[in-house]
From TrEMBL:
The lineage of its organism: Bacteria, Pseudomonadati, Pseudomonadota, Alphaproteobacteria, Hyphomicrobiales. NCBIfam families: GGDEF (TIGR00254). It holds the Pfam family GGDEF. One of its GO terms (molecular function) is diguanylate cyclase activity. Its EC number is 2.7.7.65. It comes from Mesorhizobium australafricanum. Residues 244-377 form the GGDEF domain. This is diguanylate cyclase. The keyword Nuclease does not apply.
Length: 390
């Protein structure tokens, strides 16, 4: 049977190994900053366990304050890593209350009420672990199985710290003069070792999951404009049936090859980015923009009538016509041609709607460019007027 000191040393060894592993992973993938934060938090907790082991042998008021401060600080850093991973940016919501609790703990411990200091620290740690579990339960939108296990482990560890504080409170131990020694402390040590080891292993899984998500995002994003690419279009809409309130607008920048030949490819890239920026201005729920390749773009619109879809595509064309790119030959203004494809009550596949939009696009080019064409009720392209720019 392991004694209390052996349990503490086992916790320190486990935490140290996890820290080294996480630091090694971060060195190979520096973009995974939350892994570095977890590693730093683990390292602080290892320092706490080592000093707490020393405190059990030779208690002192200053050592007590350091031990309690390291415990709160370590779990604060772990909580910040969870916020970092889940996308929370208001770190003050966790940092300010924890630092306030650390200050209160330092004051009461300095005054000799180290038992109250332990209770304050245990309460702060319980709150941090509860916050971690709640954030992963509510915010997580990745693999729910992993996130639910994180929530469970955080909750179990938090309950064990709450029990430690509750035992001291019930027994009225306001002044200890030594490390607390009771069944809750032993239980907490065992649970903390198990939970922190599990959380460390899950951190590796979360890192792997995040790397997969980032890789998928990169393969589905056009690096120049930041819009989604053709692969993303097929991924999102390849199996969709386009109903009567769905439409696709295909755009092709007019005379883009001439722009590249006369002004150079860097200017051409600026023109592409300007058009992407114009499309993004019209972004809303149910509207997705894609760069299909070269100077060809597509806009998929949901929950719109054919008339509103055509109007949106026309406004994009007009807005792009007002964009001016400065070049060594003077200001450059470009135009765009567009074609519309629509869903139907019976439903139409992506390829069919794209083919309709593509046919209308080429009709727009034959009609003189700088316009958006949709088929009329007879199924024939309706050229309509050229787009007017300010």
């Amino acid at each position: 049977m392991l004694d209390f000191s052996s349990l503490l040393l086992a916790a320190a060894l486990s935490g140290a190994c996890l820290s080294v592993t996480l630091f090694a992973i971060w060195f190979t993938a520096p973009r995974a900053r939350f892994v570095l934060t977890v590693a730093c938090g683990m390292l602080v907790l290892v320092a706490h366990v080592v000093l707490f082991w020393r405190y059990t042998k030779d208690a002192g008021p200053w050592l007590c304050q350091i031990v309690l401060a390291l415990l709160s600080l370590g779990f604060l850093v772990i909580c910040l890593s969870a916020m970092q991973y889940l996308g929370f940016r208001d770190y003050r919501r966790a940092a300010v209350p924890t630092l306030a609790a650390m200050a209160a703990c330092a004051i009461v411990t300095y005054l000799g009420f180290d038992g109250i200091g332990f209770q304050i620290t245990y309460a702060a740690v319980t709150a941090l672990l509860a916050a971690i579990g709640t954030m992963f339960w509510m915010k997580g939108d990745h693999d729910r199985r992993i996130l639910l296990v994180v929530s469970f482990l955080s909750g179990a560890c938090g309950i064990s710290f709450a029990l430690c504080g509750l035992v001291l409170l019930v027994q009225g131990q306001w002044v200890l003069g030594a490390a607390p020694e009771n069944w809750a402390e032993r239980l907490n040590t065992v649970i903390a070792v198990a939970c922190m080891t599990g959380l460390g292993a899950l951190t590796l899984s979360l890192h792997h999951l995040q790397a997969q998500i980032e890789l998928k995002a990169e393969t589905m994003t056009d690096p120049l404009t930041g819009l989604m690419n053709r692969r993303a279009l097929n991924e999102l809409y390849g199996d969709r049936s386009f109903g009567p309130f769905m439409a696709i607008a295909m755009f092709d920048l007019d005379h883009f090859k001439t722009t590249n030949d006369v002004f150079g490819h860097p200017v051409g890239d600026q023109v592409l980015c300007r058009f992407a920026a114009v499309i993004n201005k019209y972004g809303r729920a149910g509207v997705d923009a894609f760069r299909l390749g070269g100077e060809e773009f597509a806009l998929v619109m949901s929950r719109v009538t054919p008339e509103k879809a055509h109007d949106m595509a026309s406004r994009i064309g007009v807005a792009f016509g007002t964009e001016i790119v400065a070049t060594h030959r003077g200001p450059l203004r470009s135009s765009v041609s567009g074609g519309m494809g629509f869903g139907s009550a019976a439903g139409r596949p992506l390829d069919e709607v794209l083919a309709q939009a593509d046919a209308a696009l080429y009709a727009a080019k034959r009609a003189g460019r700088n316009r958006v064409i949709a088929q009329d009720k007879t199924g024939q392209p309706n050229a309509g007027p050229a787009l007017k720019t300010a």
